[in-house]
């Protein structure tokens, strides 16, 4: 609770003056906070079930309230907006538009002839796209599955799932292709989300058949349609499923530490595999 000096009596005498707001001593207020009984001006008043509370009591009460969490530990926010999902989509759209005026694609896509000297390509390629249709399909898929996962897992695990799944897709490209090969797109990360959401749906007792059908259809497309990197899809799917299972089935008391160790371990494994492939 923030403390404020008492308002001085007018004229310096012993008789108390009219009640004033502790935060704004120049404002007379005859309304008192229902919790601390101090005067509170209209700017500092907050509606309560009975009467009003001052901003300091509201802040103190909020500190003692434990945040509401989903069954998998994600924090439930008041706005419930998928901030991370919208940010990822915004970055992808911004980079796609920038590619019309700046030659960013050759420097940030995954190029198997350049990745040994420029390893950041294994992540930056997950934010680039080769055309409007490519961008729209991936962003639509991200918007369909992303908000649910962001809400269930919480923001940091959601970001980790996207980035590590993208890394898994890139490592699979290095492992399963030969010669010069260049790819770009969020598909590896999106397939990671597909795998993770299937596990989360099963873990929470929901029907996962629809997402399994979507995964099967997209896997087939990757093999029969030219220009699609099935390798990135497969790598992202495997890594995303593994991380999704980790996040979904960790015991509650080990959820935070286990998630950190799992993400770190998977990242080290993928980086080690890519280093071995590039030697």
Automatic annotation (TrEMBL):
Keywords (alphabetical) are: Hydrolase, Membrane, Protease, Transmembrane, Transmembrane helix
Q: Where is the Peptidase S54 rhomboid domain?
A: 117-248
Q: What is the lineage of its organism?
A: Bacteria, Bacillati, Actinomycetota, Actinomycetes, Micrococcales
According to its UniProt entry, the protein's GO biological process terms are:
proteolysis
Region Disordered, residue ranges: 1-20
Q: Give the protein name, as stated in the record.
A: Rhomboid family intramembrane serine protease
A GO CC term assigned to this protein in UniProt:
membrane
| PANTHER family attached to this UniProt entry | PRESENILIN-ASSOCIATED RHOMBOID-LIKE PROTEIN, MITOCHONDRIAL, RHOMBOID PROTEASE
Supply one GO molecular-function term: serine-type endopeptidase activity
Sequence similarity: Belongs to the peptidase S54 family.
* SUPFAM superfamilies documented for this protein: B-box zinc-binding domain, Rhomboid-like
Membrane-protein topology: Multi-pass membrane protein
Top-level taxon: Bacteria
Bilayer-crossing residues are 83-102, 122-146, 158-176, 182-201, 208-226, 232-250, 257-278
What is the originating organism of this protein?
Answer: Ruania alkalisoli
Q: Please state where this protein is localized.
A: Membrane
Q: Which InterPro entries does this UniProt record tie to the protein? A: Peptidase_S54_rhomboid_dom, Rhomboid-like_sf, Rhomboid_protease_S54
Query: What coarse category fits the chief subcellular location reported for this protein?
Result: membrane
């Amino acid at each position: 609770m923030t403390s404020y000096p008492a308002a001085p009596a007018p004229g310096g005498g012993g008789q108390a003056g009219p009640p004033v707001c502790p935060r704004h001593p120049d404002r007379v207020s005859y309304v008192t906070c229902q919790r601390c009984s101090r005067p509170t001006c209209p700017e500092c008043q907050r509606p309560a079930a009975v009467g009003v509370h001052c901003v300091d009591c509201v802040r103190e009460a909020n500190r003692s309230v434990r945040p509401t969490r989903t069954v998998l530990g994600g924090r439930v926010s008041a706005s419930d907006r998928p901030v991370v999902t919208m940010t990822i989509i915004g970055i992808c759209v911004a980079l796609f538009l920038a590619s019309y005026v700046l030659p960013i694609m050759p420097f940030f896509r995954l190029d198997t002839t350049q990745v040994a000297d420029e390893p950041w390509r294994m992540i930056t390629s997950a934010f680039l796209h080769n055309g409007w249709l490519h961008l729209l399909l991936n962003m639509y898929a991200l918007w369909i599955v992303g908000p649910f996962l962001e809400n269930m897992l919480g923001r940091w695990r959601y970001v980790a799932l996207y980035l590590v799944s993208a890394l898994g897709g890139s490592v699979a490209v290095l492992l399963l292709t030969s010669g010069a090969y260049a790819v770009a797109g969020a598909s590896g990360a999106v397939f990671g989300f597909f795998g993770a959401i299937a596990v989360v749906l099963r873990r929470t007792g929901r029907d996962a058949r629809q997402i399994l059908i979507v995964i099967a259809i997209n896997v087939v497309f990757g093999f029969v349609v030219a220009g699609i990197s099935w390798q990135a899809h497969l790598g992202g799917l495997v890594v995303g499923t593994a991380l999704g299972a980790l996040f979904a089935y960790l015991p509650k008391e080990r959820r935070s530490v286990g998630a950190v160790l799992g993400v770190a371990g998977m990242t080290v494994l993928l980086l080690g595999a890519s280093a071995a492939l590039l030697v």
